[in-house]
Task: structure prediction
Amino acid sequence: MTVKKLLHTRMRVNDIERSVKFYTEALGLIASRRHTSPRGAQLVFLATPNSDEEIELCQMPPGAEAVKVQPDLMHLAFEVDDLEAFAAAAAKKGYALSDGPTKTGSGSVIAFIDAPEGYEVELIQKAK
Result:
């Protein structure tokens, strides 16, 4: 028996509105739905262009322990057509690259941008 498909990945955040702003403004994701979980957590699901999988942002109720993301704990990776143009547009919105661009052995170009709470987002321009 195997699973059918990946539906979403959950990421805990301290400030859900700040995180939603980053993912929608810097990356162009779409906040597709919001609700409060039975345990009182605020949830926002982010739709990704050309993908069925979503990112679920979760802010626990007041009094919960703050999120402390360890360096290099995990990252999300997104493909972009033109990394240079993407980076310039993101910088104009106040979201500068934190690392790269770097050409890989396969000929792809990668870079990173930091999301709130310290999550890393990898941007990949595949080799042509």
About this structure: Strands lie at 8-12, 30-36, 42-47, 54-59, 75-79, 97-103, 109-114, 120-125.
